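Q: I'm building a small set of examples for a reading group on sequence design. Run inverse folding on the following structure and report the sequence directly after it, with nothing in between.
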């Protein structure tokens, strides 16, 4: 090589070296600019260097790192992957691993973490990066507990990492452990404290207090904490609106659980007025409050909104059932309960267990569908559905309690008493059990016990609707009672022995009970009739006592009769219930109220007595037979025997129909009595009664009842004639202890073979002064 060639080579080498040095200096300057926060300038310089020297791997590595610093992780990983380097420096691996995590590319982050651990053993950064990638992948897969395990392992590697503290705290909140989350925070965190307060609310609802007097202690503590946190969050220099709204929502739920119904509705209305979103859990709390405030139509709409968001939420479906029921949308309520009962089966599989376990939701749905029939008056259907459930799970208190309620309305108070006390032994004491025990004591006429239990309930649960209903029932027993029956009848026909047109008024005023069960009574009755003889009057003034025991009752009254015939009299009547199915009743009278007014006109009165035996399979099927004898002062001896069967053939929520075949036979010993007195006579009839609900709103209701019957009357020495009866009545219940009855009827009766029509109008009132 000559001298000129050698000089060229040397010069070229010097120029290339200087260019490389200049490029390195520019790259270092760009990186230094990035460290000072001038990311855009640094990235532009490094990109220019990369274009000028595309094979310079160091420039591409630095560009990837700076892009990650600048918060552009996707571009950082694109540059890194484009470099196709086999082994990157540790600082580059660290930055790109973080970039993959920032993009939630957990597999790539785990791969680089594994490479770092292999190439740089002993460095904490790489097992830490592997744990973070594992945590991210688990969280993305929905396995919060696996993510928590990975984050806790990462915390052991970097105990002072504040970001890891926040991640662990967040996952603990997510899995429902806000108090554990608080252990991983250094400074007070309102968000975590809010979750802790919400957990206190849930705990108060899930773990009822053993002492009902302290049932609100936990929820009151939760409310106090929520209100304190809400004040702190609102007073912050820059309030976190999301936190404030969440605290207000949790407060709504707490107010619901505290049974502050008006406050719940007001708070949700305020949120709605401010334009805040109303999530399903707040809307459900509002629905519960509306239902408790007896606003079922609004509650129904609210529950519908909740179910639109969460169609299978059981608590909302049950709430909707009661809103439909209390809003008198009975068919919809029954359809909903049947739909819930048709879902699932008695067994369910939980987790990976190969052995099925009992499905509590299915059982609850079956019980609800049965009890729904009880609520709407289909008592026999309710019993048919519930009894197999009790047989299958005899140790469940709520099923026993439901059986007791249905047994009581079916006319089996002793069975109801027994089942209620069994239910009370199977579960800790609570409001429902205490109310049931008081109810059954009242039904079994243990009035002092009912009063004592009710007084305790009123002190513990003031304002509760069920307790208030019970209190009113107990007060009704202790209150004065007024009974007034009045009717007017008009006869049309040619039979001389008919009773004649007229009217009757019967009234009684009962004093509050003495010594639990004795009630003094004053009575007044007035009767007028206009037979062929003329106007006949009878006025009766009575004083007596009524009393009842769990299995028997007694009514004794002394009467002073004035009017057409002045004469003293009296009546003693009693009943004895032999178990839940058999009843024996008897009475004896001096100057009987059944003495025909035509007999009184002639100075004749009658003493009488009778006995009746009744068997009831249930309240819908009753067979009864009676025998009565009357001794008239004119020497006539009258014997009457009768019997009937009542059976309910239709039982629907708003309609029931009963059939009543009836037989009667009578005999008199005197043929020339001046009142209707056939030697022998008999009648047979078949009647039907339809009772229909016109309107109901909680305790108030309006029913109508139509009765029809047709039969025949046979009298010795006279032709047999057909008889008939039709009546229409309305029953207005103003309260549970006050009712007004009014109606009219038409009857076709037969006297000595001649038909007589009778039109009757009546109005009756029963009222207890509470």
């Amino acid at each position: 090589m000559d001298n000129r060639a050698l000089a060229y080579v040397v010069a070229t080498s010097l120029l290339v070296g200087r260019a490389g040095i200049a490029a390195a200096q520019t790259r270092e300057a760009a990186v230094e600019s990035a460290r000072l926060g001038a990311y855009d300038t640094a990235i532009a310089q490094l990109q220019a260097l990369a274009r000028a020297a595309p094979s310079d791997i160091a420039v591409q590595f630095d560009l990837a790192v700076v892009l990650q610093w600048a918060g552009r992780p996707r571009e950082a990983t694109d540059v890194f992957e484009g470099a196709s380097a086999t082994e990157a420096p540790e600082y580059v691996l660290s930055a790109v691993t973080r970039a993959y995590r920032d993009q939630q590319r957990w597999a790539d982050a785990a791969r680089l973490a594994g490479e770092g651990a292999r190439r740089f053993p002993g460095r904490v950064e790489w097992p830490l990066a592997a744990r973070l990638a594992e945590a991210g992948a688990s969280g993305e897969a929905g396995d919060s507990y696996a993510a928590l395990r990975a984050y806790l392992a990462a915390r052991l590697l970097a105990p002072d990492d504040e970001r890891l503290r926040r991640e662990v705290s967040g996952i603990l909140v997510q899995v429902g452990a806000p108090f554990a989350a608080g252990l991983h925070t250094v400074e007070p965190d309102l968000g975590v404290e809010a979750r802790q307060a919400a957990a206190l609310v849930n705990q108060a609802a899930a773990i009822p207090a053993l002492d009902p007097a302290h049932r609100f202690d936990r929820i009151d503590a939760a409310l106090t904490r929520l209100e304190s946190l809400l004040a702190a969050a609102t007073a912050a220099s820059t309030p976190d609106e999301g936190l404030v709204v969440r605290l207000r929502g949790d407060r709504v739920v707490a107010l619901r659980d505290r049974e502050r119904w008006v406050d719940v509705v007001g708070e949700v209305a305020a949120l709605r007025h401010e334009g805040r979103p109303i999530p399903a859990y707040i809307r459900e709390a509002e629905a519960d409050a509306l239902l408790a405030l007896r606003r079922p139509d609004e509650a129904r709409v609210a529950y519908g909104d909740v179910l639109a968001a969460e169609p299978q939420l059981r608590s909302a479906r049950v709430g909707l059932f009661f809103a439909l029921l209390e809003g008198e949308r009975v068919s919809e309520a029954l359809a909903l309960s049947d739909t819930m009962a048709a879902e699932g089966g008695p067994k369910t599989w939980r987790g990976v267990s190969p052995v099925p376990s009992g499905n509590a939701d299915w059982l609850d749905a079956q019980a609800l569908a049965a009890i729904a029939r009880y609520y709407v008056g289909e008592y026999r259907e309710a019993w048919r559905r519930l009894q197999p459930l009790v047989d299958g799970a005899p140790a469940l208190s709520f099923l026993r309690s439901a059986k007791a309620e249905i047994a009581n309305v079916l006319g089996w108070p002793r069975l109801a008493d027994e089942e209620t006390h069994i239910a009370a032994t199977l579960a800790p004491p609570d409001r429902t059990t205490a109310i049931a025990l008081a109810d059954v004591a009242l039904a079994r006429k243990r009035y002092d016990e009912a009063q004592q239990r009710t007084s305790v309930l009123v002190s513990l649960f003031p304002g509760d609707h069920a307790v208030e209903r019970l209190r009113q029932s107990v007060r009704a027993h202790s209150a004065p009672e007024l009974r007034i029956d009045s009717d007017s009848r008009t006869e049309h026909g040619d039979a001389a022995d008919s009773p004649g047109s007229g009217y009757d008024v019967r009234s009684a005023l009962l004093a509050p009970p003495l010594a639990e069960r004795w009630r003094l009574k004053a009575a007044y009755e007035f009767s007028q009739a206009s037979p062929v003889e003329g106007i006949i009057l009878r006025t009766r003034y009575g004083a007596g006592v009524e009393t009842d025991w769990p299995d028997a009752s007694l009514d004794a009254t002394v009467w002073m009769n004035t009017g057409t015939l002045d004469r003293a009299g009296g009546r003693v009547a009693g009943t004895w219930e032999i178990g839940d199915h058999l009843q024996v009743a008897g009475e004896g009278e001096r100057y009987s109220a059944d003495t025909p007014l035509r007999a009184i006109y002639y100075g004749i009165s009658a003493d009488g007595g009778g006995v009746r035996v009744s068997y009831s399979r249930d309240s819908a099927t009753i067979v009864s037979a009676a025998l009565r004898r009357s001794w008239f002062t004119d020497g006539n001896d009258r014997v009457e025997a009768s019997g009937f069967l009542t059976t309910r053939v239709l039982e629907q929520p708003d309609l029931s129909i009963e059939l009543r075949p009836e037989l009667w036979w009578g005999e008199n010993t005197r043929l020339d009595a001046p009142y209707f007195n056939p030697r022998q006579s008999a009648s047979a009839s078949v009647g039907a009664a339809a009772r229909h609900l016109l309107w109901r709103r909680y305790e108030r209701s309006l029913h109508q009842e139509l009765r029809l019957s047709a039969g025949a009357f046979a009298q010795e020495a006279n032709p047999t004639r057909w008889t008939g009866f039709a009546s229409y009545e309305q029953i207005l219940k103003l309260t549970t202890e006050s009712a007004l009855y009014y109606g009219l009827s038409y009857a076709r009766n037969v006297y000595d073979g001649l038909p007589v029509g009778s039109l009757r109008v009546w109005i009756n009132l029963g009222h207890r002064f509470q």
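Residues 5-20 have pLDDT under 50 and may be disordered.
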